[in-house]
Write a structure and sequence with these properties.
The chain is α+β, with helices and mostly antiparallel strands and 166 residues long. The chain has a single domain, classed as Sandwich (Jelly Rolls), CATH 2.60.120.1140. Helices cover 20% and strands 34% of the residues. It has five helices and ten strands. It has a seven-stranded mixed β-sheet. Strands 1-5-8 form a three-stranded antiparallel β-sheet. The longest helix has 9 residues. It is globular. 37% of the residues are buried.
Length: 166
Amino acid sequence: MVSAVSRVRTPLAAACLALGLLASPALLPALAPAAAQEAGRTEPLGIRSRDAVHRFEVEVMRNDADRMRGLMFRRAMAPDHGMLFDFERSEPIAMWMKNTYLPLDMLFIRADGTVARIAADTEPLSTAVIQSPEPVLSVLELNAGTAAKLGLKVGDRVEHPLFKAR
């Protein structure tokens, strides 16, 4: 399950994001049926914290259409599941929760797999922009409260083939 995602690469893209053009209401009917389906194929992912390795099954979003749809319109996600966004290269990332009903924790992840920021308990259906603190390769979305419950911190390492290949 994924939230709407936008990469802010240019001033024009930033302006479109601010105006809400990147997730135009005209596109939403086309996105809703696919997003409402059950979770797709998952891959294993671990987060190595100080005390343990926490295991999840994640859907990986590897193209713009999937990244844009994300977890929109989904109403539930299993506690040990999440969504990993692969942005293909490190860059500043901006995300939002428009049309996303689930409160989420967002982990912004550097190319080496370390967590750069944790945006905890994001607000469902919000158009507030949630930005990476620096260029990142990926964002992992988990159910809200998961990061706090597991004691996840900035600097923890995410283990997934996405980070080994770079």
